[in-house]
Write a structure and sequence with these properties.
alpha+beta; Double Stranded RNA Binding Domain; two-stranded antiparallel ribbon; 5 strands
Length: about 140
């Protein structure tokens, strides 16, 4: 079990981990050893996630989400399989913990009476300044 957030954990059987060849550092091993990790997690059908968390997770995943609702994370930052595996799991758990936090609903507010009066007063003052900018009357 992987602890993701308080009261939320994933079973390791839900993660499909495959090792692939990585580009980047590795020296002579780069063409021989499959050290990069490609991890797949089915966010849509996961029994561990509540429905609301799953929906938010799919929105947060962005381009990492396939049409089937599977999140694909590729980790190739390190030279060893184990370090890349930990990195991929950590990135997924970070994504899920962000999705577990429900957004705060916005409560619409109204401007106060004093704020409305202040705005109208400023408008009338500005109007007076601009009205003095016209051409002088011929009677003057």
């Amino acid at each position: 079990m992987i602890e993701v957030a308080p009261g939320l954990s994933l079973d390791e059987d839900e993660l499909e981990i495959t090792f692939i060849r990585a580009s980047g550092p590795g020296g002579q091993n780069v063409n021989k050893v499959s050290s990069a990790v490609q991890m797949r997690f089915d966010a849509r059908r996961s029994p561990s996630l509540p429905n609301e968390v799953s929906i938010r997770l799919q929105k947060l995943a962005g381009s990492r989400l396939t049409l089937d609702g599977v999140i694909v994370i590729t980790a190739n930052r390190f030279r060893t399989q184990e370090a890349n595996r930990k990195d991929a799991i950590e990135r997924l758990s970070e994504l899920i913990s962000k999705a577990a936090v429900a957004p705060v609903k916005r409560r619409p507010t109204k401007p106060s009476k004093a704020a409305k009066e202040k705005r109208l007063d400023a408008k009338s003052r500005r109007s007076g300044v601009k009205s003095m900018r016209g051409k002088p009357n011929s009677a003057d």
